[in-house]
Write a structure and sequence with these properties.
The protein is elongated and about 100 Å long. The chain has helices spanning 2-10, 18-32, 36-48, 62-67, 70-73, 80-87, 98-111, 116-140, 145-157, 162-166, 171-193, 197-212, 219-231, 236-240, 243-263, 265-273, 277-296, 321-334, 338-351, 374-389, 396-417, 424-434, 439-451, 455-468, 473-486, 489-506, 511-523, 527-540, 545-557, 561-574, 579-591, 595-605, 613-626, 630-642, 650-655; strands spanning 305-306, 363-365. The chain is 71% helix and 1% strand. Strands 1-2 form a two-stranded antiparallel sheet. It is mostly helical. The relative contact order is 0.06. The protein is built from 35 helices and two strands.
C-alpha cells in the first residue's frame, strides 16, 4: 500500500490543495519503511573500505595539499585562526577548496602526520554519510526501500568510489558530496512539506559544498531536475527561485577558473597535449562513454589516465554518443519515463563540467569525477529494480541473485582497489601496469624510492624518465637531489652538479635549480660560486625559503654575521614556524652585540616544536646573565636542567649559585 502511495505522489502536480495530499502520503511512507536498510548499506560500505584504513599518504597532491603545505604543516593552537583566515583566502595548486584544507589543518593538530589512519577514517566516515543521504533522497523521491537500498549500496561500494575515499586529498569529494546531498535532501523535503526553514539549511549546505570543491556549482541544475521529477513539469518559478544559487555557482566558478589559469593548470594541459578546442570536444565525448561503460564494467581503473601523445582516431566516432543521448532524453521525456530522464540528466549536469574540454589537469579521465554524477545512474537502476521486485508476475529471486552477484563483485573489487593506494610505490606501480609511455608515474615513483633510500630503484626510474624525454628539467633536478643525498664523496656531488647544470640549461628561470646547485657548490667547498647561485636563485624565486637558509650558512662561514642575519630574517618571514631558525637569529644578534634584542628571538624559538628546546633555555639563561637579570637566568637554567640538558658549563652554574 505504501509503495503505491509513493508512486502516485510522484505524478501529482504540486499545486493548490494537492500539496497537502503529497505531505500526508509522504508521512505514511516514511514511517512505514524499515529502519535497517541504510544501516546495512553503511556497514557493507565500511567493510569494503576497511582495506583503505592502513594506507599511507601518497606523493600525488597529498604533499602539496597538507603535509608540505605550510598553512597545515605548521598550524598549532597559537596560529590557528591566523592560518585559518589565510586558508580561506588562498588556493592550493590552482584549486579553491578552503574548507577541505581547513579539515586537514584540524587533523594536523589532532593527529599529526604520523597517524594517517585517522585521516583515512575521516574520509570513510564522510563517505558513509553520503551513502545515508543517497538512501534518504531515493526514499523521499518515491523509490521503495529495496530499490533505495540498491542505490545506497551502489553509491557506497562501486569500485569507482575508491579514488574519492582512499585518497586523502580527495577529501574534497566526500566533503563536498556530504553537503551537496544534504542540500538535495533538504530540497526534496521542502517539496513535500513546504517549510521555508529548509531553504536556509539548503543554502548553508550549498555554500559549504562550494567551499569544499568547485564541482558543487552544478547543484542548481540538480534542483531543477528534482522539480521535474516531483512535479512532472517545469515552471518559470522553479528557475527564478534558484537564481541566488546560480549566482553563487557563477561566483565560485569564476574564482575557480581564475585560480586554475593563474596556477597554469589550464594552459599546461593544453600545451602538453597540443589538442585543439575542437579535438577536446571529442575527448569529452570519449570520456563520457568511458564513464558509462565503467558504470557496469569498471575496468582498468587507474589514479591517472594520461593524455595520449597523439590524437587517436577512435576519439572521433565517440561524438556519436551525443545524438544517442539526446534521443534517449527526448523519448524518456515524451513518454514520461521520469526515472530515466531524471537519472540520465542528473548524470549529465554533474559530469559535463568535468569532461576536460578546457583541459585542466594531467589526465582526460578521473574516477573521482563520477562521485556525485553516478547517483543519477544508480537511481535509474534502483528505481527499475524496485519496480521489478513489485511486479506480481516477476520471479524476484532471479533479480535478487543477479544484483547480489553484482554487489559482491563490486565489493571485492573495491576492497582490492583500495590497496593500490597503500603508498606512493604501490600507486605508481599500478599506473605503470597500464601506462608505460608517460614520464609522470616513473618520476613520482622514483621520488618515493629516493625518499625511502631505495637509491638503486630510484635511479632506474629516473633514467627511464630522462631516456623517454631528455628535456625534462624537473627530472634532472630530482635525480640530482638523489646524488646530492647520497653524498658518497666528490663523485656523487659531481653527478649532482652535472644534473643541476642540465636542469638549468632546460629551464634557466627556475630559481629552485639555482639554489640546489648552490648547495652542491657549497658541499664541494666553492663558497663563492655557492653564494652566486643562491643569490641568483633567490632573485628568480624570492619566496624560496631554503635559498635564504643556505645563503645564511655561507655568510656565517665567511664570518659575515650581519648578512647571515638578514637572510635568517628573510627566511623567518616566509617560514615563521621554525624554532631552530629563531634560535639562530638570537645567536646572530648576540654575536653582533645586540644582546637585548636576542631575548625575544629565544622566546619565539621556544613556541615551536624542536628537539633543542633545552638548549634554547640554556642559551637564554646565559643571555639573561649577561644582561644582569639573575632571577630570569636562574629560572631558565632550572628549566634546562629539568629538560635533561647535559651541556651545562659548571662555572656558569656556580656563578648562579645552583
Amino acid at each position: 500500500m505504501a509503495k503505491k502511495s509513493i508512486q502516485k505522489s510522484n505524478t501529482i502536480k504540486a499545486t493548490g490543495p494537492v500539496q497537502n495530499k503529497v505531505v500526508a502520503t509522504n508521512s505514511v511512507v516514511t514511517s512505514s519503511v524499515p529502519w535497517w536498510p541504510p544501516l546495512l548499506a553503511m556497514v557493507v560500505t565500511f567493510l569494503c573500505f576497511t582495506s583503505s584504513l592502513d594506507n599511507q599518504f601518497v606523493n600525488w597532491d597529498d604533499d602539496r595539499n597538507f603535509y608540505e603545505n605550510k598553512l597545515v604543516q605548521h598550524i598549532d593552537k597559537n596560529n590557528f585562526w591566523e592560518n585559518s583566515k589565510e586558508i580561506f583566502s588562498s588556493g592550493v595548486i590552482g584549486n579553491y577548496n578552503p574548507l577541505t584544507i581547513w579539515t586537514f589543518a584540524i587533523e594536523k593538530i589532532a593527529f599529526g602526520f604520523d597517524k594517517p589512519y585517522y585521516w583515512h577514517l575521516d574520509n570513510l566516515l564522510l563517505h558513509l554519510i553520503c551513502v545515508f543521504f543517497a538512501y534518504r533522497i531515493a526514499i523521499l523521491l518515491g523509490v521503495g526501500w529495496q530499490g533505495s537500498l540498491l542505490i545506497a549500496l551502489l553509491f557506497g561500494i562501486h569500485p569507482m568510489r575508491v579514488e574519492s575515499v582512499a585518497w586523502v586529498t580527495e577529501r574534497k569529494d566526500v566533503l563536498f558530496g556530504a553537503f551537496y546531498l544534504a542540500a538535495l535532501l533538504q530540497y526534496v523535503k521542502y517539496k513535500l512539506d513546504h517549510l521555508n526553514i529548509r531553504w536556509i539549511w539548503m543554502t548553508l549546505f550549498f555554500v559549504l559544498s562550494l567551499f569544499s570543491k568547485i564541482q558543487a556549482v552544478s547543484l542548481p541544475l540538480s534542483l531543477i531536475l528534482i522539480d521535474y521529477y516531483m512535479d512532472k513539469e517545469w515552471t518559470m518559478k522553479s528557475v527564478i527561485n534558484k537564481i541566488p544559487f546560480f549566482i553563487l555557482s557563477l561566483i565560485f566558478g569564476i574564482v575557480g577558473v581564475i585560480m586554475l589559469r593563474d596556477f597554469g593548470s589550464l594552459s599546461s594541459a593544453s600545451d602538453t597535449t597540443q589538442f585543439s578546442f575542437f579535438q577536446r570536444l571529442f575527448v569529452g565525448a570519449f570520456s563520457f562513454i568511458i564513464y558509462l561503460v565503467k558504470l557496469v564494467v569498471p575496468f582498468r581503473m587507474s589514479p591517472l589516465y594520461p593524455y595520449p601523445n597523439y590524437f587517436p582516431w577512435y576519439f572521433y566516432p565517440s561524438m556519436l554518443i551525443l545524438p544517442i543521448v539526446l534521443y534517449v532524453l527526448y523519448q524518456s521525456y515524451k513518454n514520461e519515463w521520469k526515472a530515466i530522464f531524471f537519472g540520465l540528466s542528473f548524470f549529465i549536469v554533474n559530469i559535463i563540467f568535468l569532461l576536460q574540454i578546457l583541459g585542466a589537469g594531467q589526465g582526460y579521465l578521473a574516477d573521482r569525477f563520477t562521485y556525485i554524477a553516478y547517483f543519477g545512474l544508480f537511481f535509474i537502476a534502483g528505481y527499475y529494480f524496485d519496480r521489478y521486485l513489485n511486479r506480481k508476475e516477476s520471479n524476484s529471486n532471479v533479480g535478487l541473485f543477479v544484483i547480489g552477484v553484482f554487489v559482491m563483485v563490486f565489493g571485492f573489487m573495491t576492497f582490492q582497489q583500495n590497496k593500490i593506494w597503500q603508498d606512493s610505490g604501490t600507486l605508481w606501480s599500478h599506473v605503470l601496469k597500464y601506462y608505460q609511455n608517460t614520464t609522470l608515474p616513473y618520476g613520482n615513483r622514483a621520488n618515493f624510492y629516493r625518499d625511502k633510500k631505495m637509491y638503486k630503484e630510484a635511479i632506474a626510474d629516473y633514467n627511464v624518465t630522462i631516456g623517454m624525454k631528455g628535456d625534462q628539467p624537473q627530472a634532472y633536478n630530482s635525480r640530482a637531489r638523489l646524488y646530492f643525498d647520497l653524498a658518497k664523496g666528490r663523485d656523487s656531488l659531481m653527478l649532482a652538479l652535472n644534473d643541476y647544470n642540465k636542469a638549468i640549461q632546460y629551464d634557466p628561470k627556475d630559481g629552485e635549480f639555482r639554489v640546489n646547485r648552490g648547495a652542491t657548490y657549497a658541499r664541494l667547498g666553492d663558497i663563492q660560486k655557492a653564494i652566486e647561485d643562491l643569490t641568483e636563485g633567490i632573485k628568480l624565486k624570492p619566496d624560496h625559503a631554503v635559498g635564504y637558509l643556505n645563503r645564511s650558512i655561507m655568510y656565517h662561514n665567511l664570518n659575515r654575521v650581519d648578512l647571515a642575519l638578514q637572510d635568517i630574517e628573510s627566511y623567518l618571514k616566509l617560514v615563521p614556524y621554525n624554532g631552530d631558525l629563531w634560535y639562530e637569529k638570537a645567536r646572530a644578534l648576540r654575536l653582533l652585540g645586540r644582546t637585548e634584542e636576542s631575548i625575544p628571538a629565544y622566546t619565539e624559538a621556544m613556541k615551536y616544536e624542536s628537539g633543542n628546546k633545552a638548549l634554547f633555555y640554556y642559551e637564554r639563561a646565559k643571555t639573561y646573565f649577561e644582561l644582569h637579570k639573575i632571577n630570569e637566568a636562574k629560572a631558565d637554567l632550572q628549566q634546562a636542567i629539568s629538560m635533561g640538558f647535559n651541556g651545562i658549563d659548571p662555572a656558569f652554574r656556580m656563578q648562579l649559585g645552583m
